[in-house]
Amino acid sequence: MNEALRRAMLQAHTTARQLAESCGADIKTVGRWVTETGRVPRARHRWAVCEALGEDEAVLWPAAVKKAIKVGPDREVVSVYPYRSGCPASLWRSLITKAERELTFAGYTNYFLWLEHARFGTALRRKAAQGCRVRFLLGDPDSDLTRSREQDEDVALTLSTRIRVTLAELEKIRSQPGIDVRYSEGHAYLSVFRFDDDMIVTPLLTHRVGHDAPTLHLRRYQDDGMFDRFASHVEELWRRGSPVWEGEDDG
Fold first, then answer.
1. Does the pTM of the predicted model rise above 0.85?
2. Looking at the predicted structure, is the pLDDT value of residue 99 above 70?
């Protein structure tokens, strides 16, 4: 029996019939996924199940993930998505939930996080209270660069408005120690989101908003690999950044 799948279904209060309907499979097939040890669904079904249950593929079917592990220079690339909007919400939830040491959100507005993840502020407050370092890098809503990018995007919900929404949400959890926010312009065309040793990277394209940008899911496997290089980039931006809240520690 696949105990991990059975537990995930129980925790999500999902029946075999409901899971079958959500991932486009026969209910008998779903039953075999649960009862037959070593039974591994097709990739599209695995991804649909992970999305439905909010669980990571490596937890439900570790053998499938191990089989797909690469050993070359690109082995830190876990997945590639043509659009950030195509990156499963379950992946974001799983990475945020499992992070223990660090959550860094270096998106220019980070607006979509509040829009797409229910009770996101509560989750951040809980993580910080548990000792996880939570950091946000934002663009300055009043900067010339922000105004220039707004002209490039040419959308009704402007860049500065989206930044101010994020600032307002962060203000609500400002009193929680361990949550820090800085302004930076060095990530205007590259968003990096770090969850311990996992990372989501989005290079932004001219005249495109963030959800239309290609997206990489990286996992750290080596020193000075892709993960470390993006992490170093963010650390330098953080060092150069300016505190959003007056009187906050610059350390």
1. no
2. yes
